Amino acid sequence: MRPSNRTPEQNREIKITRHYTDYAEGSVLIEVGNTKVLCNATVSESVPRFLKGKGKGWVTAEYSMLPRATHKRNQREAAKGQQGGRTLEIQRLIARSLRAAVDLNAFGENMITVDCDVIQADGGTRTASITGACIALADALNWMVVKGKLKKSPLKQMIAAVSVGIYKGTPVCDLDYAEDSNAQTDMNVVMTESGGLIEIQGTAEEGAFSHQELLAMLALANTGINNLVVEQKKALNVE
Amino acid sequence: MRPSNRTPEQNREIKITRHYTDYAEGSVLIEVGNTKVLCNATVSESVPRFLKGKGKGWVTAEYSMLPRATHKRNQREAAKGQQGGRTLEIQRLIARSLRAAVDLNAFGENMITVDCDVIQADGGTRTASITGACIALADALNWMVVKGKLKKSPLKQMIAAVSVGIYKGTPVCDLDYAEDSNAQTDMNVVMTESGGLIEIQGTAEEGAFSHQELLAMLALANTGINNLVVEQKKALNVE
Amino acid sequence: MRPSNRTPEQNREIKITRHYTDYAEGSVLIEVGNTKVLCNATVSESVPRFLKGKGKGWVTAEYSMLPRATHKRNQREAAKGQQGGRTLEIQRLIARSLRAAVDLNAFGENMITVDCDVIQADGGTRTASITGACIALADALNWMVVKGKLKKSPLKQMIAAVSVGIYKGTPVCDLDYAEDSNAQTDMNVVMTESGGLIEIQGTAEEGAFSHQELLAMLALANTGINNLVVEQKKALNVE
Amino acid sequence: MRPSNRTPEQNREIKITRHYTDYAEGSVLIEVGNTKVLCNATVSESVPRFLKGKGKGWVTAEYSMLPRATHKRNQREAAKGQQGGRTLEIQRLIARSLRAAVDLNAFGENMITVDCDVIQADGGTRTASITGACIALADALNWMVVKGKLKKSPLKQMIAAVSVGIYKGTPVCDLDYAEDSNAQTDMNVVMTESGGLIEIQGTAEEGAFSHQELLAMLALANTGINNLVVEQKKALNVE
Amino acid sequence: MRPSNRTPEQNREIKITRHYTDYAEGSVLIEVGNTKVLCNATVSESVPRFLKGKGKGWVTAEYSMLPRATHKRNQREAAKGQQGGRTLEIQRLIARSLRAAVDLNAFGENMITVDCDVIQADGGTRTASITGACIALADALNWMVVKGKLKKSPLKQMIAAVSVGIYKGTPVCDLDYAEDSNAQTDMNVVMTESGGLIEIQGTAEEGAFSHQELLAMLALANTGINNLVVEQKKALNVE
Amino acid sequence: MRPSNRTPEQNREIKITRHYTDYAEGSVLIEVGNTKVLCNATVSESVPRFLKGKGKGWVTAEYSMLPRATHKRNQREAAKGQQGGRTLEIQRLIARSLRAAVDLNAFGENMITVDCDVIQADGGTRTASITGACIALADALNWMVVKGKLKKSPLKQMIAAVSVGIYKGTPVCDLDYAEDSNAQTDMNVVMTESGGLIEIQGTAEEGAFSHQELLAMLALANTGINNLVVEQKKALNVE
Question: Which PANTHER family match (chains A, B, C, D, E, F) (predicted)?
Fold first, then answer.
């Protein structure tokens, strides 16, 4: 039995609020159970130096947790004077995932930066960030079309992400903190809406995991991400 | 005429949401017009080194703006590797102000840290932070009483803050960004609920300001803060 | 009775030495009682990036205390790897104050940086820095005129600063360390030579302060600053 | 056809030199084709603060590339003042993988730090680091047994790692730089000698990858890692 | 002919002001020609961690140049966020030199830190720092005797330092900036009052220097340092 | 008797491996007894900003020790967030020494950076770095000639370095760690192949050293460096 009484394949309730803040070109508050992440997409008409003059665009991301997003307060990274390894690893994952959603060659020399700030953390903050950030990204690209900066959105397809794992010997989907902190194996999966794999990061927390367990987790991820894409599209259709 | 059509002495609409997040001992979302600040108070049963063994408590604060709280994106301080002068100045002001609300000698060797994270910035973020943080602080102190960690809350009285200024020659209360960025003089005032002054920081942005103007701004601050204290108390009475 | 036996309105003895070092375009050692600050103004023919191409000049300042300026040695900020909040707050105040003395639009794309290094600290280092820096600034501007870089000095008027406070219940002017460390309220005031207010920063260290006390402190600041301006002008007339 | 003329399932030649330096408790130079990594294991009789008093040991790792390990010189991270996201991500992966090889509860309050310094980089530096570091770890644990600090080595089993990917449409094993920089998909796999999965990190560099491709890559990883474990054991049997 | 019209073996005029600031246990302003360094010695009753419990004392030093000590302003190291290589190298030299003057085994677990802050730089700041710092050190040790913290000063002997070099083919003593910036060879020498060598650091700036030139420079250093020791002793005899 | 049984004037065995890594334009592993340093020279077709447009080239160097090059592990400087004073001092010395070997005016606006990474440290790492780096530099300059980037190598002559010292009262050449850590005096000498002095840095570790001892050490350095230059030339003649 899962701590939340969900069935193994059951996602947490998801709530998506677009236009959450007024100034960002795309602004989404995504709530996955008690995990809440604010994803703000910013458009800038320039690209990083390594891309200058190549006629290509770029998408990047930053990730942070508010100090008291968690049960215990974490020291603020700005006060510590640097971003930790976990933060850098997560924001690199978010950025790579989002770039897989966009045809960068059809984007001009523009850049979108998506800031994912975790307001409350109950497990799965990186996957919630990816799922929410993709909506903010879509909104920002649409904003560019409306403003005449692009003829057509270079969004190829939606991407979404979920965590899966082995909890008390059973493969489960969309772990909350109670499960995540006790899981034997934890895997984050990013997929496209058409079922292609973008990223898969699995870690044995205790012992190793078998090929069979991997396949079971992948199947759960596939279903879970399908559900998320449905929610993403529903949200994008409301204006 | 003010850009917001308010009268010179009129505060912006204020909205206070207590228990905004689940984990902090005090958690308040304060909205002052379009300015939105999340104030999370964390209790810890220890004090900074310089107070160890003195039987006294401490209150401190940290302040940050989300990168896209503003019209243009600001670089994340954690990514820059340090907090800027403005941030440090503001969080020192918030902390000093909050300490004026508490009897630190009746607090034991405990500490409260209030994190003020600006979700959206439309002027007056430091004063909104102080006003909201005081409620989160009150909640955290009450939580300590409920949990038996303190017999009685050491809160002496509420404090609140407002910005006042000279806009197009007229003294006005509670400036939004449109006014603030064009004001000749800008002054932040922190007061107790009984009308005592805690902090006053006035700056001439253009030319100098006169003794007369200072008195006019102080009068507006007095009224504005009275209004805020009414809202604070109203919020604290709702459970 | 004040520890220094001064009357409440009495400034400390002030000594101004111009041309204290040989290389800076303006170099002033200001001694206010036992507080000694070296203020060196450097001219550069360029402006910060945000002003490039706007035809306007800039004035900025940096502040530091030598490690053993105080009774106990402070760790060197260069060794710590960053400037503290107090330092940043003070140098922002000095810079804002100095900019109020200059017509930046009549200054061309030039910049003056005033370094205020505290040799000895006996209270009031930030106000002594402002008072001394304004003289160094005037000298540097005159140097530019002499060198043919400017037709006319863009100095609008002198500014000076003093601290006032409530010590043992009595409002007093120009606090030394013995008073400052025990004051109930502490206020720094920056004014122009014609009596306009530039900055006012008052802080209740203990309890709150009343409107009456504020007015009494302002009156003392007014007199104290007038005295300082007299000394500034006397110094500038000697060659 | 692979640039190196290898068959898709063929590992690069591997060379393992134990006792490469004189002072480390375990010191291994691992050469995987032209990739060369020096793995030095250091024993310390203490654990990080979060483990103090829990009777458990710890294994950690650090990773770095010499500035000219690559075709173009990279700026030295010590000179930049911080380790980059890629470095932190890799050293976290190495450390997690190594911890999976050791029974930390049977290790006492001891710690082993394995430094992986890349002398030359021709693709697969993180997987070569893991494969080499596990041998250095085994040597350091044996050293502790010989020195009487442990009764028995807490090594549970060897672990090894390989990168697999999709290169020009074909799944291949153990990519060198020429392949890696052009691969459509890149996946790092860490396994135990008995075939359990420890870590799997797959990334689509271009488009997405299918479930079928994932299975093909996993099969290659399984064979490749088996080959590496044979080499590890051969090396450990030579004294 | 030297730019200063001095003979090759002639030192610059030296001026030593003891008790320059009020709070440091030893405080010396040393002026060597136009080079001015403030040397403040601070006593602390503890030693660095690596010496704890060994019954030995320690002497250390820090060095800094005020930003406008030189013809052009240097960026403040505290603002840059780190001390440069030149600064670290110099303060290591000063500290090593001062430790050679003291019997650390007869000093108890005490530490003296000497801060050398360059007010004005006209060449030879590191040697002036050493010469001045040794007087501040002697004063601080005497202060400890007077205060009853030590029975007897552990000062073994005075040390002093001078720079020598080859300027336009001629060996010269005590180079000022005009010479230093054009010297072919530059050498800093630290000696004891009895003629023992403590440090010698010679650098060819252009071409190499010969054994003969080295001997000529050493002879000049010997004379120059003797002159400095006479001045040190004269200053220490005045109360 | 020396710990290594060498005679006082005897160098340690030296082994030079050119082309140690594949990618650097010059790559030398130098082994001086048990001290091993990898020296990689990188050519870049640009110069630092202060030399832009002056038609001159530049040579610079960086130095680092792998964390476990020594008996005890040192914390990685990249992890600490800055290079220490010893590192900066050494790399400044290496760079200055190398620049003395090259006619920078005949080098065009090119730069060579030599990275000296210490694989194992048994004393004399900075002098081994200089001796090895000069060979890597020569190789890199020859590479530029072969590639047609220079008509002729601007190398003026080889330079080499050795440490000498007073160990148990006797002057000795090329100290290993056992001697170095117990030496009364330690001196590093850099010379050209024709016997000119480039750098001399002598430090009394205990007491002072006499003029006589200095001369004895210089004589040893002269012989020792001659031996090293023979080895450098032998190595450069092998292809």
Answer: EXOSOME COMPLEX COMPONENT, EXOSOME COMPLEX COMPONENT RRP41
| Distance separating alpha carbons of residues F94 and D155, to the nearest angstrom | 43
Do E160 and E229 meet the contact criterion of CB atoms below 8 Å apart?
yes
CB neighbours of C233 closer than 8 A, spacing ≥ 6? C158
Q: B172 forms bridges with which residues in the sheet?
A: B165
How many Cα neighbours within 13 Å face the side chain of E150?
25
Q: By the CB < 8 Å criterion, does E96 face chain F? A: yes
Chain C residues in contact with E81 (beta carbon < 8 A)? 81-82
Q: Across B121-168, where does the E strand assignment appear? A: 159-167
Answer whether F111's CB lies under 8 Å from F58's CB.
yes
User: What DSSP state is assigned to residue B49?
Assistant: G
* Nearest CA-CA partner of A162 in A21, A3, A8, A18: A8
Average pLDDT, stretch D49-55? 95
By three-state DSSP, how is residue E105 classified? Answer: helix
What is the value of ipTM here, to two decimals? 0.95
User: Exposed (0-12), middle (13-18) or buried (19+): which is E157, by Cβ within 10 Å?
Assistant: middle
Contact C218, C161 (CB under 8 A): no
CA dist., res. E210 & res. F37, Å (int)? 29
Q: For F22-70, what is each residue's pLDDT tens digit?
A: 999 999 999 999 999 999 999 999 999 999 999 999 999 999 999 999 9
In whole angstroms, what is the distance from residue C2 CA to residue C220 CA? 15
Structure confidence at residue E238 (pLDDT): 75
Strands A14-18, B170-173: pairing kind: unpaired
Neighbours of chain F (3+ CB pairs under 8 A): D, E
Task: Name the pLDDT band for B207 (thresholds 50, 70, 90).
Answer: confident
The reply to whether B178 touches chain A by the CB within 8 Å rule is: no
* Residue of B78, B117, B120 lying closest to A21 (CB–CB): B120
3-state secondary structure of E137: helix
Q: Which of B94, B96, B198, B226 to mutate to test the interface with C (most CBs of C within 10 A)?
A: B198
What beta strand segments (E) does chain A contain?
14-18, 26-32, 35-44, 58-65, 111-120, 159-167, 170-173, 185-192, 197-204
Alpha carbon B139 to its chain centroid, in Å, reads 15
How many other C-beta atoms are found inside a 10 Å radius of the C-beta of residue A19?
13
Q: Is C129:C116 a contact under the CB 8 Å cutoff?
A: yes
Nearest CA-CA distance, residue A105 and chain D, Å:
12
User: Contact E185/E166 with Cβ under 8 angstroms?
Assistant: yes
C74 touches chain E (CB under 8 A): no
Q: What is the pLDDT of residues D80-103, one digit of tens each?
A: 999 999 999 999 999 999 999 999
A234 exposed, middle or buried (CB, 10 Å; 0-12, 13-18, 19+)? exposed
Do E82 and C81 lie within an 8 Å CB cutoff?
A: yes
- Nearest C-alpha of chain A: how many angstroms from B179? 18
Q: What is the 3-state secondary structure (H, E, C) of chain F?
A: CCCCCCCCCCCCCEEEEECCCCCCCEEEEEEECCEEEEEEEEEECCCCHHHCCCCCCEEEEEEEECCCCCCCCCCCHHHHCCCCHHHHHHHHHHHHHHHCCECHHHCCCCEEEEEEEEEECCCCHHHHHHHHHHHHHHHHHHHHHHCCCCCCCCECCCEEEEEEEEECCEEEECCCHHHHCCCCEEEEEEEECCCCEEEEEEEECCCCECHHHHHHHHHHHHHHHHHHHHHHHHHHHCC
What is the strand order of the sheet D170-173 is part of? A170-173, A159-167, A185-192, A197-204, D197-204, D185-192, D159-167, D170-173
Whether F204 and E92 lie within 8 Å, measured CB to CB? no
Count of Cβ atoms closer than 10 Å to residue C53 Cβ:
8
With residue B61 as reference, give the H or E element that holds it.
strand B58-65
Q: Does B142 contact A at CB distance below 8 Å?
A: no
Q: Are F61 and F95 in contact (CB under 8 A)?
A: yes
